[in-house]
Amino acid sequence: MYHNHTFKIFLAVLALLSGLASTSAFSPKSQQRLPGSLSVASDSIVSPEPASTSSSKAQWFSTDESSKLSTDQLKAQVLQLGAALDRGQAYNPTSGAYYSGTMLLAKKKIQELVARADPDINVPKTLEDIAGEWELVLTTVPHGIFRSSPFFLAIQEAFEFAEEGKAFGEPKANLFFKLHELQTCSWGASKVGRVAQRIDPETSYIYSEFDTSIFSLTVIPILGWFKLLPTFGGCVVTASKCEMQEGGKLAMTVDYTTSRRVPGLSGLGEWIWSVKVPVGAVWKLLPWNKGREANCSVLVKYVDGDFRIVEDIDGELFVYSRPVVPRDLGIVEEKKIVLAEETVVEE
Predict the structure, then answer these.
(1) In the prediction, which pLDDT does 296 show?
(2) Distance of CA 330 to the CA centre of its chain
(3) How many CB atoms lie within 10 A of CB 40?
(4) Mean pLDDT in residue range 20-39
């Protein structure tokens, strides 16, 4: 009798908890709007009725034409495609044509979002309009999502000054990045993790960063069942001077490259985090650059509270969003140095 009574009480408590969960988890009152402009309407999630073709009721991941979707719904689709394509890494023309159709659709969705840009609102006029931290969620560029870094953008633009723009039937810049990817990513030797940028209007600097891990998975083929080599790596940071020009053109000049620790990932040693490579100074000394600075630029085609879309000189697109998990880059000391140098120049 005692066990029977206890079991009935347990069932009653379980039913009560289930009822509370069902009334609160999907209640419109529990849906909170996040900072920024991307919002999810609660009725589009819980409504059992078939979705209509209106922008407020259309399915978020419908295969209908983009013109029938709201801007928020279109942005959600871009985010989903970014996840499906591993930010663009899943499609690699060196490996094959698989996922090429998905990439074409992703590019079409991004272009549709760009087409909706209001020049007075969504095209930046100053660095303040794009200030803060941004994380890469999708790019259409082949051979490495790290190409969003001004360092690699400067390499891309440097090939424009070459006497011969092509080699082996393709642009030299693409060939360079293809070979770079093959050398660094073969056999899982290197993996690219988080890719992000932050713009500081106070110092007119853009800090581009990407996480890289070396020897993430190393094993004897077929026979191996344990990891051979330790994993190490960090966050590579390229600091560049930047200026917002007319028409949303973001002009950049690479200054230096350094690194930062990634929590949970071992580095080569404490000394590595304080090393600064003066890329900008070395760049001008290289004979093929003929004294030119490490300059590059992108066009900011669209920006709002959540998204930033830029286009490189080849027409490839990079989509950034505000990060859900922001990271402290630890650039306070660098910022002090830059501001001090500016004060000396003014005096």
Answers:
(1) 95
(2) 19
(3) 13
(4) 37
